[in-house]
Amino acid sequence: MAAEASSGASTGGSAGRRDGLWLLVIWIVLSIIGCLLVALVWGPHMPPGADSNTAASQQTDITVLATIATPVVIGVLLYFGWALAFWRQKPGDETDAAPIHGNTRIQALWITVTSVIVLALAVYGTVELIAPAGAGAGQGPQPIFNRGIPPATSLTSWQPNTNNVLQIQVIGQQWAFTYRYPQFGGFETTDLVLPVGVPVRFNVTSLDVIHSFWAYQLAVKADANPGVNNIAYTTPAHTGTFTVRCAELCGIWHGAMFDYGRVMTVPGFMNWAHATEIQLAAVTKMLPPYALTYDPTVLANVGKVNQELGLTSAGGGYYNPADPEQP
Amino acid sequence: MSLPARVATLVIAFLAVVAGGIFVALHYIGSQPPVEDYTSVASNGQVNVTLMTTPETTVTDKPDWVTYFIKNPQSGQFVHTTYFKVPAGTQVNITILGYDGCTPLRNPYWGRVTGTFTSTGQTNAANVSIFNGKKYGPVTSVSTLDSWANCSVQHTFAIPGLGLNVPVASPPTVAENNALCAAGPCVGPGADEGNAPHSVVKFSFRTPKAGGTFRWQCFVPCGGGYVDGNGGPMATLGYMMGQMEVQA
Asked: Does the residue A151 lie in any domain?
């Protein structure tokens, strides 16, 4: 049958045309059904959800990619299944298959179609990266994709509905994230709380090794590098909770480096922020002045005894070379 | 070599490789420090757990590593482990004998006491007393310790899953930090043993009723000899991190 089909296709026989026609019709029908199912039924449930503008954007992107891929997947599987079902070599058939010849038209069509798809996706991906202010990804210290994000006009105060972006610093350390709110007195806490519907700028850094701040349901993911400020944007769309995980293997308790954040109403957030600022005032006094990065080898206002002992918050020290036991 | 001999050789070689793999998995990957079981000594909804920090671990092949020890509830001996088991829904009264010297916290935020409870409610405080080599100082209730401004913190005891964080106070002077315990565990009457300068830190917290396993760790970069103090005892089970098993 395979020989017949191939022979038919290459010589213009009726069997090949029938197979090709059947395959084409079935592929079109299945592709339409599959694309509709993926786009309309599966799409709204695609990760990471729609809890922020960046999450919704990523969900749309994944849905578009999956929808485009559906006819390709169906075509491959259909051809594979068709070959298994109808083009198998019959028992006792020792003849060779028909030789394969090039088909310029098919090759040109294939190259054109695939090129169009890839280039269109490149354009689409670039637009999608720009549109929701960097798509929730870390953009380094000088982000270029910030459309729709208010400017950072004040680092010492923030009020809703003003032309000033809310800034939250994410500090990674083995093995926990803490969060500083510079516009509310610079307090630091283990609770990540955001107001709904408000653009947020995350300033992500680390105090030791490389971590990665991944607020899954918000579709924010930014590496936390020591000595580097990595900026990411998002705008929460719904109140509720979201998961924060470290997405960079950072040591023995990396797997336990996760917590949960909350998105509250704007008034609720303001109440929480002001109450927390007051509650943590004693701790805030001990913290170093707010900065975009921190150097653990340099202490502000280091105490006399620490100075005499030669201690910094880099810790560790080094072994005496004469020590019989070395790490 | 005959066919049966070749087959037998192949089978034996295969089994040897499998046995080696199982040995490595069990010995290195599956091994963990011993667990000190406090469930049998709990009474009236409370259990007392005693830990010790030491600047050296002379009972192991890593004598220069700082470490925690946990007192065995039956023998009273300090065991080199960071694993312990306590009952669910219980007030755990922790006593930490802190024999190490000070190191500034990488993030001074961890100088804040959080998550401590007593029967009267949340306290966010720990009781601290310093033994300076001669006598114990007064017991002071502490809610924050500024490890940058003073030589005040040696390690922390933090269970992130319970929101618990307690900085372990340290002897505050240069002289005391130059006369630390030279053994591990720090027991015995000598000035470089149990009578070396140290702190006594006491606090309580409640275990959840549902039980579970909670990891705990130190947030001071105390891995001497490693880049930024992150390796060695900071990255090895049984030294500056461990697990608390809460038995429901």
From this structure: no
Same domain for A130 and A7? yes
Q: Tell me: ipTM over 0.90.
A: no
CA A59 to chain centre: 11
- What's the rounded Cα separation, in Å, for the pair A177 and A191? 9
Residue A193 is assigned to a structural domain of this protein? yes
Run of H or E residues at A5: helix A2-11
Does A316 sit within 8 Å of B222, measured CB to CB? yes
Question: B122, B130, B173, B230: best mutation site toward chain A, by most A Cβ within 10 Å?
Answer: B230
Q: How many A-B residue pairs are in contact by the CB < 8 A criterion?
A: 149
Residue A9 above 50 pLDDT?
no
Q: Using the predicted structure, report yes or no on whether residue A42 has a pLDDT greater than 80.
A: yes
For an interface test with A, the pick among B100, B103, B178, B243 (most A C-beta atoms closer than 10 Å) comes out as: B103
B194: region left, alpha or beta (phi > 0 left; psi from -120 to 50 alpha): alpha
Note whether A205 and A111 are same-domain residues: no
How many Å apart are CA B113 and CA B123, to the nearest integer?
9
> Domain boundaries in chain B?
1-31, 35-247
Q: The tokens of A129 are what?
A: 């990266």
| A38 and A78 share one domain | yes
Give the minimum alpha-carbon distance from A246 to chain B in angstroms, rounded to a whole number. 14
- pTM value is 0.86
User: pLDDT tens digits, residue range B18-31?
Assistant: 999 988 877 776 67
What total of structural domains would you count in chain A?
A: 2
Model pLDDT for residues A100-135, shown as the tens digit of each residue: 888 999 999 999 999 998 999 999 988 988 888 999
Domain that holds residue A7: 2-89+103-135
